[in-house]
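Ticket #4471: complex job returned nothing on first submit. Input attached below:
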Amino acid sequence: MTGGVRLARLAPPLTLAILLGPLAFGLTGTALPALGYLPELGGESFTTAHFTALGEVPGITRSAVLSILIGLMTTLVALGAVAAFVASDLGSSGFVRMRRMISPLLSVPHAAAAFGLAFLIAPSGMLMRLVSPWLTGLDRPPDLLIVNDPWALSMMAGLIVKEIPFLFLVTLAALPQTRHVETMRLGRSLGYGRIASFTILLWPPLYRQIRLAVFAVVAYATSVVDVALILGPHLPATLPVRLIDWMNDPDLETRFLASAGAVLQLGVTLTALIAWIGLERIGAYMVGRARNCGHRMQRDRVVRAAARLVMIASAAIVFGGIALLALWSVSGLWQFPDALPANFSLRSWMQALPRMSGPLFTTLAVAGLSTLIALVLTILCLEREYETGRGRGGGALLLIYLPLIVPQISFMFGLQVLSIWLGVDASFSALVLAHLVFVLPYVFLSLSDPWRAHDRRHDLIAAGLGMSRARTLMRIRLPMLTRAILTAAAVGFSVSVGQYLPTVLIGAGRLTTVTTEAVALAAGGNRRVIGVYAFMQTLLPFLAFSIATGLPGLLFRKRRGLQV
Amino acid sequence: MTVDSMTDNQGLRLDRVHICLGDRVLVTLDAKVRRGETLTVMGPSGSGKSTLLAYLGGFLDPAFTASGRISVDGVELNRLEAEKRHAGILFQDPLLFPHLSVGDNIAIAIPEDVKGRKQRRLVAEAALADAGLAEFGDRDPDTLSGGQKARVALQRVLVSRPRLLLLDEPFSKLDANLRDQTRQLVFDRARRAGLPVVLVTHDEEDARAAGGQVHKVGQP
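Support reply: We reran it on our side without changes. The output follows.
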């Protein structure tokens, strides 16, 4: 056993296979039908006819352009708010408070946040109730198209409030690798305002580190389905939503069109990424110009106030939305301009719970199993990296990010085709594997930093005491990293709980989770039932994170060195 | 030195500066530092001597409470934000910005009123030449030696035309031989520019080389 942990040798190739295998097979499985080849449905020869048909679908250009714009706008606003906020308040006590407030938001599933926003801003939503009838004079909801607006503004808002916590935490994780305290002081002592000091001096090296995460946000926002179903425009819908419609069309011929559309989606996301790189260039050029002129930009109060406002508003929207979900789930009669329900009742829960038990079990089982596999693989990969000193380069990072940057829909389509072909569609193991593709990157990203930061001397001492690598891993390293491991597990668990598309496609309607059930309710508009499901969807990750933060304190209550 | 002819409010004045952390008094200081002179503040690590620099620069952590008037050439700094104080700082590390060329590292410090790219370039080039680094403008700062980096950092702060210079143990990470040279250079340039200097250090040699008043903090 002295040659290291034997199993660890298998981990890196296995991890790569799990990340890239579905990607490669899935993209192939999408591309072949798109080109007309799907023998099961009578497609035996290659043709471009399906792309021609795709081009003739009414409103397809608008759907595609809309998806690109949503990707760019969402990322621009969320990243801008995060950067401006970090610039203006880094190192202040308000910054610490914001960090505490924003961090839990990361675990809120996208769909639940989107429902919460819809409940807030809809014509009959909470905001309208709060100002009615005393201000608006309305005693019935106005006839306005706020949610599902044709310009996707509410959809972008729903994405922005969820991407802000993600980008904020990614930025916070990258900050310690810069000399941010001294750099900001130096900039300000040279006369630059906070925003200018940050933008010119700190942002370029910082952005380089978070760039892949930003790409993931662009890609996600261009290809998201669940948020679009809840908040997005209808006629025409964004491209991914139309793809799902075609996919579910009883006429199997539509599959060819859907596959061609999924290839188009790949192009749409790629176009958005290229446009984003263009924006990066423009941004860098503008920063360079400002730098060359030496403008100090000391009067940045307005920008700073705006950044703070956006951050607080995004947190308030998500928290407020969740509170509304909970309120609706226990509300009895609740007529329009009333700000509160006339009475409360557990009826919605009583009715929903028996029906929810199946999906709930699937949710927990898939999330638990995929997280466990992801954890084991991640730990073994990191152990292998420790033993060999290889594998932490930029190339490895890109591979881990790849499933998060390639649009889900473009390869999940092909995987579904493949799973039907192999006869494993709607099987539990295929669903776990599909979730694993997305759980694994997040678990890895979450655990690798604390793992690498762990003081190697503990391992050296253990080796000096004659402990084998495996024993050192089990007895020294893993216990010392309990907190980080549990946090990574909670991250993985919530990623799995939030997965909509892979569950719908691979579960094929026979394996459903709380998330797919909740999103399916969107069209119906029964707020009480939506409240129950979406609140439950929020509750699961929240519980996971509570355990992750609470358990180590309990386990190590007599070990001061391991407490926060 | 052009000090003697100056009127009384020239240079840095610290009036009853008092910095506490909770109940603990870290620094009490009354001092007058004339242009070109250095006030050395000595003390062991954790004694709060760097806190004094943070107070002067406008970066004091809210955990500390501080009082006392800071003024330079009659201008009170207390109410000014850090970016309006013109307090130049040199840290332990040269902290050259890794994403900028050596020339741009200096150009960024040139005040706003120097207008036009060409003019700003000339100022930066002159500053580099003055440090014996005339050909280094386009270099990546990471390729410079420790001594060269220290010289670029010094030129950067000088070119920003500060009102005063704050030195936070800027020589402690240099090796012995380089330390002497750099020390001489920094004090020489500060004198030439007529800057009041506040130096915090725990090295007696620094105090000797600075040759001004010495204030000790954190001593039992």
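The helical segments of chain B are 49-57, 82-85, 102-107, 117-130, 146-159, 176-192, 204-210. Closing as resolved unless it happens again.
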